[in-house]
Amino acid sequence: MKSLFLTLTILLLSPFASAQLENNNDVIQFHKVNSSDTYLNSTTDRNLCNSSSSVNINNLFIKEVKVNNYRAEIIAVGNPPLQYSLDNIHWQNSPIFHNLKNEVYNAYVRNAYGCISNAFPFGILNLPNIITPNGDGINDVWNLKGLELYPGSSVKIFNRYGIILVNTKIDNNGFVWDGTHLGKILPSDSYWYVIEITDGRKLTGWIVVKNYNEKDR
């Protein structure tokens, strides 16, 4: 498979190129038929039966990335076999990645012709369970990094009595909460959230707001 990637990549270096490969005892010939990335694929099997078709090697893109906790699956469109990467350096045959960290990733897919898709960003969200909005610059806000990649998502925050304190839609600026409601500092307490992401994920949990003022000491 490695030689297949290397040989077909050579085709991209010439406006009208051709190559002949052997794959599972079949002879596959590729002839570039125009100045774009369209090739005539001619295959002759071991019985000397011949078939041909026209393929566009750039018909390659990522449709979506399905995230489940710390697992991500790349859903791609393209002529197989495909390989997958989260850094455009290390590649694997499986579209599934496990044990990911809380950060933003760029997904890539490439085909046997050496074409690589555009980057597809997605996020494994970091959801801290405590903020201390005392103005010292440490954990002052609840910053849901990566949520800006999913505009149209929603965030709701409730107090212990079920009263909605925050109900907002996400835009390209993401979401940052400073532990206030209607401009007033909330008391130190536990609060509950529901995050509905446009990719189908629904995240629920709690966050502690701890205000270190005279009453709390």
What does this structure look like?
The protein is mostly beta strands. The chain has three domains: 20-56; 61-123, Immunoglobulin-like, CATH 2.60.40; 130-209, Outer membrane usher protein (Immunoglobulin-like). The protein contains one helix and 19 strands. It has a five-stranded mixed β-sheet, with no helix packed on it. A hairpin with a 5-residue loop joins strand 18 and strand 19 (202-209). The longest helix is centred in the N-terminal third of the chain and has 9 residues, at 2-10. The protein is elongated. It comes from Apibacter adventoris. InterPro entries: T9SS_type_B. Keywords: Signal. This is Gliding motility-associated C-terminal domain-containing protein. It holds the Pfam family CHU_C.
Q: Termini, distance in Å?
A: 66 Å
Tell me the strand percentage band: 35-45%
One letter per element, helices H and strands E, the order comes to: HEEEEEEEEEEEEEEEEEEE
Write out the CATH superfamily name of the largest domain: Outer membrane usher protein
- Low-confidence segments, given as residue ranges, are 1-16, 18-23, 40-45, 47-53
Shape type: elongated
Briefly note the structural class of the backbone: mainly beta
| Rg on CA atoms, Å | 25 Å
